[in-house]
Write a structure and sequence with these properties.
Helices cover 26% and strands 26% of the residues. The chain is built from 16 helices and 34 strands. The strands form eight sheets. Strands 2-1-5-6-7-4-3 form a seven-stranded antiparallel sheet. A hairpin with a 4-residue loop joins strand 22 and strand 23. The radius of gyration is 29 Å and the shape is flat. The N and C termini lie far apart (59 Å). Bound molecules: MU-OXO-diiron (FEO). The site of MU-OXO-diiron (FEO) has 8 residues, from helix 6. The site of MU-OXO-diiron has 8 residues, from helix 6.
Length: 636
């Protein structure tokens, strides 16, 4: 039997979507067929390992969006090469397109959709066939439908021809699902495709093509012009320092800082931070964003281990802040011919920090710089995080070196890429970084995201935290949500208390919020928790309740830093309430109320100011109702 015969079945390609418990998800399928016309029923078969399968099992509804021949590869990468268990595939949808069953359909690159309700299912072991009644069907365009054959021949990236075997004696295997090529001496049994996550069973070895040139024909062929670089590092390279590759010739050369206790000398770093730097090896060598000066020795060691005797030709400065730039002078000393690349606003502060720089190149918005096969393009993102901030886009690999944008606190614990770690572990540190570094310029961050939206991006390589290559939609979605001040359902209660009475009030307020049905209630003593953690949660949640006792005729002093940060960073769209102890003069409540008013937050309940301790029933009731009112205000 020749099972290749099965590939001659004329499959189409579709996005299968569903919705369960407010979770939208979708995947690519090729197994859709009409089974009856009266009643109108279709069948779709889905692998049981798919998250979409799990959701359809629970929801009993699904949609089929029919892809057209205009569908670009990124649609397959987005819906087919990542799992909804780790990525919200619809996080960046600006407009929701739902059908009668409340399931999303895909309005672009499609020519029709079917909205269905599951009537029956058949268990095929590895797969389930769902039989669905068609509730609605609509045409979206007149573009031809996409077939699997068309996808294979016209959309899927072409692998290296089989005859072109690597000259280094290595073997190559191709992932049949996404086209990724693995090169090495052997294919490990537990290898997983870094792009689409399929295992070794989906890999096929690319064997030498018998029609390829023979050794003797190669020997008699004209000698091609020698390219000075084309330095191929395989995954079997013996030097582990050389193996942190974003692509074949783009390297991660960043460092981890687990020593510094306070970032910018005021933000706690319990999990450390990384200073990321990248090296592009081409006819010209470019080093993108150096690192913090305390890590110079480690940094130069890493850079030199990749350079292997070559010089750095360009030093790209995306941002002047010393956590990145304080090794600039050392890099210039090491490679005196290096040209320092920045924009019109880069050099005045840089030279103010480190002295005159003689060999500099000023680039403008959209300007390009060729390195050989790689071309850098520069885009200004002022105020993300300083006025001179810019990002560098490498056109060949489609990597954006985004500097502070999309960065996060937390040293990199071995995993450099987003698909090598548990994202949930990093999210808090990412949001804390956003809320305390980038949040102040949320509008500019949003503009930067929009500007980058015009580029085809395969990887985001920031100067802190993870390199994003598999969960781009997830990180873009988070940054967009935070920049738009879209808070989640939850309440943050922060109090300052000298003798415990305002703390007792906070407990009553929290009871009211929880009894109103809010599960995310966070209570912080402002004297005990460093303010960056509190700001991170204020950014995260819709509800904020601030409490402070009086201190003479003013407010408990430690609360002053928080109100300063709130007024400085201006988190928006908050529902709030205020409470506190009066002592003999009052002062805490009125100062907090002024802070919230300046932020143009929405008052959910009258402020509660208690004389002494909350021991009277009417005070207890007011505090409880305050918590309840804010909780109810943040519920959808
Ligand atoms: Fe990581 Fe604004 O410097």
């Amino acid at each position: 039997m020749d099972t290749k015969a099965l590939s001659y079945i004329g499959y189409g390609l579709y996005v299968l979507t569903t919705r369960f418990n407010d979770i939208d998800n979708g995947c690519i399928v090729n197994t859709v067929m009409q089974v009856t016309s009266n009643p109108l029923q279709i069948a779709v078969t889905v692998n049981k390992g798919n998250y979409t399968h799990e959701l359809i099992k629970n929801s009993g509804v699904f949609n089929i969006s029919m892809l057209t021949t205009e569908t670009p590869m990124f649609v397959f990468e987005h819906f087919g090469f990542q799992s909804g268990r780790t990525v919200n595939k619809f996080a960046t949808c600006e407009t929701e397109h739902r059908t009668v069953n409340q399931v999303l359909y895909i309005p672009k690159y499609t020519n029709a959709y079917l909205a269905c309700k599951v009537l029956n299912s058949i268990d095929f072991g590895t797969h389930t066939m769902f039989i669905g009644e068609v509730l609605d069907a609509q045409l979206l365009s007149d573009q031809p439908s996409l077939t699997y054959d068309y996808y294979q021949n016209n959309i899927k990236p072409k692998p290296q021809p089989q005859g072109e075997q690597p000259q280094n004696g290595k073997r190559r295997w191709e992932c049949k699902v996404c086209g990724y090529i693995y090169e090495g001496d052997f294919l490990p049994d537990d290898f997983e495709c870094p792009l689409c996550k399929h295992g070794v069973e989906e890999f096929e070895e690319l064997l030498p093509n018998p029609k390829a040139e023979t050794a003797s024909s190669i020997a008699t062929a004209p000698i091609p012009e020698t390219k000075p670089v084309q330095r191929i590092i395989t995954t079997q390279n013996t030097n582990p320092m050389n193996q942190i590759q974003l692509t074949e010739n783009i390297f991660y050369v960043g460092v981890n800082d687990r020593h510094t206790e306070l970032f910018e000398n005021h933000i706690e770093l319990p999990n450390g931070v990384s200073y990321n730097s990248y090296l592009i090896m081409d006819e010209k060598v470019a080093l993108i964003d150096p690192v913090e000066a305390n890590f110079l020795e480690d940094y130069l060691f890493k850079v030199k281990s990749v350079l292997q005797g070559r010089n750095v030709d360009y030093l790209i400065i995306n941002h002047d802040e010393p956590d990145h730039s304080s090794t600039v002078a050392a890099v210039i000393r090491e490679w005196p011919e290096v040209q320092v690349v920045g924009n019109a606003k880069t050099f005045a502060p840089l030279e103010a920090f480190y002295g005159p720089i003689t060999n500099k190149k000023v680039v403008a918005e959209g300007e390009t710089l060729s390195l050989g096969t790689h071309t850098l393009q520069f885009f200004m993102v002022p105020m993300v995080h300083w006025p001179e901030s810019m990002v560098t886009y490498e056109q060949n690999s489609k990597i954006v070196f985004s500097n502070d944008a999309f960065g996060g606190f937390g040293a990199l614990n071995g995993g450099i890429f987003d698909d090598q770690v548990n994202l949930a572990f990093y999210e808090d540190d990412m949001r804390r970084y956003y809320a305390n570094i980038v949040g102040k310029v949320a509008m500019q961050a949003l503009k930067a995201i929009e500007k980058l939206g015009g580029l085809e991006i395969k990887m985001i390589a920031p100067s802190h935290g993870l390199v994003w290559r598999s969960n781009l939609a997830w990180v873009l979605g988070k940054y967009t949500q935070w920049s738009k001040h879209e808070g989640e359902e939850g309440v943050v209660i922060v109090y300052g208390s000298m003798h415990g009475n305002t703390a007792r009030m906070a407990e009553i307020v929290a009871r009211g919020a929880a009894e109103a049905g809010i599960k995310e209630v966070k209570v912080y003593d402002v004297a005990k928790t460093e303010v960056s953690f509190i700001m991170s949660d204020i950014w995260k949640y819709k509800g904020v309740i601030l409490g402070a006792c009086a201190h003479y005729a003013n407010m408990f002093p430690d609360m002053t830093l928080l109100t300063h940060e709130i007024n400085e960073f201006k988190p928006k769209n908050k529902c709030y309430g205020i409470f506190g102890g009066m002592s003999w003069s009052g002062g805490g409540v009125k100062t907090l109320a002024k802070c919230a008013e300046e932020g143009q937050w929405n008052l959910a309940a009258e402020s509660v100011e208690v004389k002494g301790a909350p021991i009277r029933e009417e005070d207890w009731d007011k505090l409880y109702e305050l918590g309840k009112a804010v909780a109810e205000a943040v519920r959808p």
